[in-house]
Amino acid sequence: QITLKESGPTLVKPTQTLTLTCTLSGFSLTTGGVGVGWIRQPPGKALEWVALIYWNGDRRYNPALKSTPFVSEGNSANQVVLTLTNVDPLDTGTYYCAHSTVAARAGFDYWGPGTVVTVSS
Amino acid sequence: QSVLTQSPSASGTPGQSVTISCSGSTSNIGTNFVYWYLQLPGTAPKLLIYRNHQRPSGVPDRFAGSKSGTSASLAISGLRSEDEGDYYCASWDDSVSGVVFGGGTKLIVL
Fold first, then answer.
1. Record: contact B33-A104, CB cut-off 8 A
2. How confident is the model at residue A67 (pLDDT cuts 50, 70, 90)?
């Protein structure tokens, strides 16, 4: 059974670095074809794709973001870490991580429950 | 401003049919698959349609996806109150080498 769960701080100050962790269960990023994406949703607004990492280390980022994202494997094979540097209040929202595959690049078939992040001084 | 364009809202009464549209361009919908998600209030999105028209296990056949050129549609038949929520389309975009979402369509079941 595939599950994902996001964790991280709920409050971050502007210009600081935000680090979120996605803990995977039922699959591993070392499995061929697997990807993990990060998607966020500002309060009351639409979904916005942030980043993707694939089993082979391929990383993709949303070029429209003002903050600079970086996605990597965590300390264990069942973790994916999203880092956003120089955050802005516009980065406030719910952050989701989700399972994908290279064969379905915009298809996220399993999602975590999301974690709420507020960027404010 | 989302890359994919959706109407902000749609509505219907129980039992009726409704269609939600998603408009893109040659770099996304025109050359890549379309995916549809349903987000119920306060919950994470759920995949409804993949690869334009395929339904994941558990999604009823009341939901049907289609694609033509640079546009896609999600048709919902036999509307139920539990269908009320926000519907998003998504696709891969070759010009940004990433995922693009629509702005979402809020479906209201009257």
1. yes
2. very high
